[in-house]
Design a protein that fits this description.
The complex is a heterodimer of chains A (about 425) and B (about 525). With about 425 residues, chain A is of the alpha/beta class. Helices cover about 20% and strands about 30% of the residues of chain A. Classes of the chains: A alpha/beta (about 425), B alpha+beta (about 525).
C-alpha cells in the first residue's frame, strides 16, 4: 500500500455540494484539495435532472441539471482539483482518517487537515412509510426511476401510480407522461402538495394528471410484478379510511415519500446530528461538532433549490480553508444555539459562533400560512424582517442577518414566522 | 451457465429425484451425494430457497419451544446438535448466540388471586426452573436460570418489567437462503444436478411403485422420489397417489431493521415467556433477534391464509408486531425499519412433521409439514430420510470421492485491507463498489452470476451478495446490478427479472412507449 496522503482538504461527494465546496476551498487558498466521488462521473444527482429550473439565484439563468453541474465541473477541472471517481469511502474516523477504495488505487488511506461532507441524501423506501402488500418488481423510488429513464434509457413502467407529491414525484409524473407511459394519478397523504407550486402547475396541471390530496396507498398487489395498488382517503390522523379504499390497476408504483440525508459516515466519525434535519449540527461556517469536519448541501438538510446547496457548499469550503490556514491558531469560540421559533420546523445553521459576520439562516415552516412575516431576533432585537404573502413547508426560506450588529449579546438567536396581524 | 441447467436438458433417468429446492430438499440431496452422485433436484422457481426457506427468521432453535414427544422436538434437538458438523465445509456461518427467555411481570397478572409473594415465587423461581427442567428432559444442554440483574446485564434494552429469565445457549442463527444455496452447490460439486424453473406435473406409478417424475420439461425415470415441496407437498403427494395429508398455509410476517441502528439492540435472540393461553397466535410467539448478518428482526406473526402464494404483509400485521414487541423492547427505534416480508409455513392438521415412505407408492418418500423448527431440524430430517432411502435401495456405502468442501467466494466487506488489495490487483472489479449500503463489489456480483447455482435474477444476486439489502433497498444499485446481469448473461437489460419469469425490472427502453399514432 502506498504512503498515507495528507491533503489539506478532502471533500466527500461530488454533487453540487461537493463541487462547490472543493472550488471554494481551492479559491480560498488551499492548494491541495481532493474530491472523492463514488459514482463514475461528477455532478451527483444533477446529470439525471434534465428538466430546467436550476441556477436562477447563482447564475440568474434557467439551466438544466447537467448544465448547472457542467459549469462547476469545468471550474473544478481548471482549478486543478484532484478528483477520484468510482471511489467509495469505507471508513471515516473522528481524527479525520479516511479509508477509501477504487479499482485503480485499491484500498488507500488519507489523513487530511480538513474534510467537507457532501454525501447528499437518499430516498425513503416503501417500508419506511410502511406500505403493506406484496414485494413485486415495479415498486421504485422517484429518483431511481429518474435515473433509469434519463441516464440508462430504461422505462421502469408503462402505467404508474405516484405516491407523494414532492418535487421529484411531480417531475416524474411529467417525465413518464412525456416518455409515453400513463400516470394514473399522484396521491399525497397531506392536505397540501409536497412540492413547489411551480412544479404542481407545470408537471400535473399542464398534463391533466390528477392530484389526490389526503390519500395514500394501502396495499401493493401482484406477486411477480405490480398489478394494482389500493388507494384510500386518509382521516385527519393520516390513517386510511377503509371504506374509501379503491383498487387502481397499474404496473408500477413510484414513491416520492421523502429524502434522508446520508450520514452513515458522519455517525462513524462521531459527528453530532440534529434529529430534526437528519444531518450534522453546524455553525455559520458549516463546521460540525468534530474539529476540522465541515458539511454542506443535502447531507446537512434537504434543500429544495440547488442554488442554496451551492451557497452552503461555498460557506463550508471557505470554512475548511480558513480552518486549515489558521492551523489551530484560533480556538473555536462558544456557540450560541439558534432557536426554531413560531411555525419554524428547523433552522440551519443550528449554531452561531462568530457573530461579527453575517449569517444566512435556512429554514422551513411547519404549516402553510398566509400573510406572514419571517423574523430573526437576537436577544429580542429584530435584525431581519420580511413580509411573505404565503409560506409553505415545501418552500425553504432564507433569512440573512448579522447577529454581531445586535446591541447586546448575542446570547439567543431566534428565527420565527409570525402572522401579520399578530404584530403591532 | 452449466449445460445441465439449460432448458430442455433434463436427464432421462436418475437414481434419486428430490422435488423442491428448499432447505429440506437441498439438505437431503446433499446428504444423498455422500452415497451416490446420481441425484436430481427439481425446483419450480428460478432459484433455490425461494419458498418458505427464504422468509423465515433464520433461527436454529434448540427445541425448547416444542411440545414434548413430538417428532418436531426430537428432530429439532438432534438437528441442533448436528449443526456444526452439518455446515462444516459449506462456507456458511452458524452463530450460536443463544436465546434469552425473559419472564416479565405480565406473565402472571397481579389479579390472579394469589399473594404477591406467591406470585413472585412463581415468576422468579418456579417458572424459570420449570423451563430449565423441561428443556433438560428434552435433551437440551446448557440451560440456566437468570436473575433480573443477569437479564439486564445480558440485554440492557429489555423491559424493566423483566423479573427473571432463562438462557438457552445452543440457540443459533444461520442465513437460511445462504445455507440452502450452499447445500445445493455442495450437492452439485458432488455430482447432483439441480434443475430450476422446472415444475413437477405428475408421476408415473406402476405396480404400486414410482417409475418416473413428469415435469413441464420432460420425464425422468426413477425409482426413488423425495417429496420436499414445502407448502405444495400435499399436492405433489396427491399427484402420485401418495398423499393423505393436508397442508394449510399459515403466513408469518417479519420486520427487518437497519443493522447500523439496531446491531447492538439485542445480542442474543430474545423472547418473552408467555403461558399458552396468553399467546395470541399459533406461533410459538417469535422474538426479537439479530439475523445471521446483524440486522435486527421482529416477528413472526401466524395467520391462516387461503393462498399458498400469499406472501403479502398487511398493515395490521405490521402494527401487531410493533405492538407485541413494544412491551419487550420499549425504546425500540421503529423508524429503522428497512424491510417487511412474509413467508408461508406448511403445517399439517397434526402440526407435526410428516416424514416417511409412502405405504401406497413404493419409492415415494414424503417430507412434509415442515414448518418451524424446520431449519433447525434440517440435519436430523436429512439423516432420517437417508435412513429411509437406504432401506428403499439407495447405496449404503459412503463414496470415497465425496468432496467435503464447497468453496465460498470471498466477501469484500469481511476482508482485511491487505486481502482486498491483493484481490483488486488481480482484478480491478474487486475495487468497484456497486452496492454502497452493504459494500458489495462488482466482482462479487459477477461471481454470484457465474456460481455453481447461477444467480440469474436480481433477488438471486441479492441473496448471494446482499446487493439491495441495505437501507436504500436497491435505489442506488438496482440498475447497476441489472446491467451486470444483462452483460454476464448475454441478455438485454429489459429481460432482467426481479425473481424469474413474470417479474421484469424494466418494461421497455425509453421512447419505446411513444409512437403508435400518439401525438
Amino acid at each position: 500500500m502506498s504512503a498515507v496522503r495528507r491533503p489539506q482538504c478532502v471533500v466527500i461527494g461530488a454533487g453540487p455540494a461537493g463541487l462547490g465546496a472543493a472550488l471554494a476551498a481551492r479559491e480560498a487558498g488551499l492548494s491541495d484539495v481532493m474530491l472523492l466521488e463514488r459514482d463514475f462521473e461528477l455532478g451527483g444527482i444533477l446529470p439525471q435532472c434534465i428538466h430546467d429550473g436550476f441556477g436562477s439565484i447563482v447564475f440568474e439563468q434557467v439551466l438544466t441539471g447537467p448544465q448547472y453541474a457542467q459549469r462547476f465541473i469545468d471550474r473544478v477541472e481548471r482549478a486543478g482539483i484532484e478528483v477520484k471517481l468510482n471511489t467509495m469511502v469505507l471508513e471515516m474516523r473522528g481524527d479525520r482518517r479516511i479509508t477509501a477504495v477504487n479499482p485503480a488505487d485499491g484500498v488507500f488511506e488519507l489523513e487530511p487537515s480538513s474534510i467537507v461532507l457532501a454525501m447528499g441524501c437518499r430516498e425513503r423506501t416503501r417500508h419506511q412509510v410502511m406500505i403493506p402488500g406484496y414485494r413485486p418488481a415495479g415498486v421504485i423510488c422517484a429518483g431511481a426511476a429518474q435515473r433509469d429513464i434519463n441516464i440508462e434509457g430504461l422505462m421502469p413502467g408503462r402505467r404508474a401510480v405516484i405516491l407523494g407529491s414532492g418535487d421529484i414525484g411531480l417531475i416524474m409524473a411529467r417525465r413518464l407522461t412525456l416518455e409515453g407511459a400513463e400516470v394514473e394519478g399522484v396521491y399525497e397523504i397531506m392536505d397540501h402538495p409536497g412540492g413547489l407550486t411551480r412544479n404542481v402547475v407545470q408537471c400535473l396541471h399542464d398534463y391533466d394528471i390528477p392530484l389526490h390530496l389526503s390519500h395514500t396507498v394501502t396495499f401493493i398487489h401482484g406477486r411477480k410484478r405490480v398489478e394494482a395498488v389500493t388507494v384510500a382517503r386518509v382521516g385527519e390522523d393520516l390513517k386510511p379510511l377503509r371504506d374509501t379504499e379503491r383498487r387502481v390497476p397499474c404496473d408500477t408504483l413510484v414513491l416520492s415519500v421523502g429524502l434522508i440525508p446520508e450520514n452513515e459516515l458522519s455517525k462513524q466519525a462521531g459527528v453530532q446530528l440534529d434529529p430534526l434535519t437528519g444531518g450534522p449540527v453546524v455553525d455559520e461556517t458549516m463546521h460540525t461538532s468534530v474539529e476540522g469536519i465541515f458539511a454542506c448541501g443535502n447531507v446537512v438538510c434537504v434543500f429544495d433549490l440547488v442554488d442554496w446547496v451551492t451557497q452552503t457548499a461555498e460557506t463550508a469550503g471557505r470554512g475548511a480553508a480558513e480552518y486549515v490556514l489558521e492551523a489551530g491558531r484560533r480556538k473555536r469560540g462558544p456557540a450560541v444555539r439558534v432557536t426554531a421559533g413560531r411555525n419554524v420546523k428547523f433552522v440551519v445553521p443550528q449554531l452561531v459562533r462568530r457573530p461579527e459576520r453575517g449569517v444566512d439562516f435556512f429554514f422551513r415552516v411547519e404549516h402553510p400560512e398566509r400573510a406572514a412575516r419571517t423574523r430573526v431576533l437576537v436577544d429580542g432585537e429584530e435584525l431581519y424582517s420580511r413580509k411573505a404573502k404565503m409560506v409553505r413547508p415545501p418552500e425553504m426560506i432564507k433569512a440573512g442577518a448579522d447577529p454581531g450588529k445586535a446591541a447586546r449579546g448575542p446570547e439567543n438567536v431566534t428565527v420565527e414566522v409570525v402572522a401579520e396581524e399578530e404584530e403591532a | 451457465m452449466p449445460a445441465y441447467m439449460k432448458p430442455g436438458e433434463l436427464p432421462s433417468r436418475a437414481g434419486l429425484v428430490v422435488v423442491g429446492g428448499g432447505v429440506i430438499g437441498c439438505s437431503i440431496a446433499r446428504e444423498a451425494t455422500r452415497f451416490t452422485s446420481d441425484v436430481v433436484v427439481l425446483e419450480k422457481e428460478a432459484d433455490v430457497a425461494c419458498g418458505t426457506s427464504k422468509a423465515n427468521n433464520a433461527e436454529v432453535h434448540s427445541g425448547i419451544g416444542e411440545d414434548a414427544g413430538t417428532l418436531k422436538q426430537k428432530l429439532n434437538v438432534r438437528g441442533n446438535r448436528m449443526y456444526d458438523d452439518f455446515v462444516r465445509g459449506l462456507g456458511v456461518e452458524l452463530k450460536r448466540q443463544g436465546l434469552l427467555i425473559v419472564v416479565t411481570q405480565r406473565a402472571i397478572p397481579r389479579d390472579g388471586g394469589m399473594s404477591e409473594d406467591e406470585r413472585m415465587e412463581l415468576l422468579t423461581r418456579k417458572i424459570p426452573e420449570g423451563i430449565v427442567a423441561y428443556g433438560k428432559n428434552a435433551g437440551i444442554e446448557g440451560l440456566r436460570t437468570l436473575s433480573r440483574e443477569e437479564v439486564f446485564r445480558m440485554e440492557p434494552n429489555v423491559t424493566r418489567e423483566a423479573v427473571a429469565g432463562v438462557f438457552d445457549p445452543t440457540y443459533g442463527l444461520i442465513s437460511p437462503y445462504k445455507l440452502t444455496i450452499a447445500l445445493a452447490e455442495h450437492a452439485v460439486i458432488n455430482g447432483a444436478r439441480v434443475f430450476l424453473n422446472t415444475t413437477v406435473t405428475g408421476f408415473r406409478v406402476e405396480d404400486g411403485a414410482v417409475r418416473a417424475v413428469i415435469t413441464d420439461r420432460g420425464e425422468i425415470e426413477t425409482s426413488l422420489v423425495v417429496n420436499a415441496a414445502g407448502v405444495f407437498a400435499d399436492e405433489v403427494a396427491d399427484m402420485a397417489g401418495a398423499g393423505g395429508f393436508v397442508i394449510h398455509p399459515r403466513k408469518g410476517a417479519t420486520l427487518l431493521f437497519d443493522r447500523q441502528v439496531t446491531a447492538e439492540y439485542v445480542r442474543s435472540s430474545v423472547a418473552e415467556f408467555r403461558l399458552p393461553g396468553q399467546r395470541t397466535t399459533q406461533s410459538k410467539g417469535g422474538g426479537a433477534m439479530p439475523t445471521a448478518e446483524g440486522n435486527l428482526q421482529l416477528g413472526p406473526t401466524a395467520i391462516e391464509v387461503e393462498d399458498k402464494y400469499d406472501t403479502s404483509i398487511s398493515a395490521e400485521e405490521i402494527e401487531e408486531i410493533f405492538e407485541r414487541f413494544h412491551y419487550l423492547l420499549p425504546d425500540f427505534p421503529r423508524d429503522a425499519l428497512i424491510s417487511a416480508f412474509s413467508g408461508v409455513r406448511a403445517p399439517t392438521l397434526e402440526e407435526d412433521f410428516v416424514i416417511g415412505a409412502s405405504e401406497a407408492v413404493r419409492g415415494f418418500v414424503n417430507v412434509a409439514g415442515i414448518q418451524s423448527p424446520g431449519l433447525a431440524s434440517a440435519p436430523a430430517i436429512a439423516e432420517m430420510v437417508l435412513g429411509i432411502l437406504h432401506d428403499l435401495g439407495l447405496p449404503r456405502e459412503p463414496r470415497p470421492d465425496f468432496d467435503p468442501v464447497r468453496p465460498a467466494p470471498p466477501k469484500f466487506s469481511e476482508l482485511s485491507n491487505a486481502e482486498r488489495n491483493r484481490l483488486i490487483r488481480e482484478d480491478p472489479r474487486w475495487g468497484n463498489v456497486i452496492c454502497r449500503c452493504e459494500t458489495v463489489t462488482e466482482m462479487e456480483v459477477v461471481n454470484a452470476i457465474h456460481s455453481i447455482i447461477p444467480a440469474t435474477n436480481m433477488d438471486a444476486v441479492k441473496r448471494r451478495t446482499r446487493t439491495g439489502m441495505g437501507r436504500c433497498q436497491g435505489g442506488f444499485c438496482h440498475n447497476r446490478v441489472a446491467a451486470i446481469l444483462a452483460r454476464e448473461l448475454g441478455i438485454p437489460v429489459t429481460a432482467v427479472t426481479k425473481d424469474g419469469e413474470g417479474s421484469p425490472v424494466f418494461l421497455g427502453a425509453a421512447k419505446e412507449f411513444l409512437g403508435g399514432g400518439q401525438a
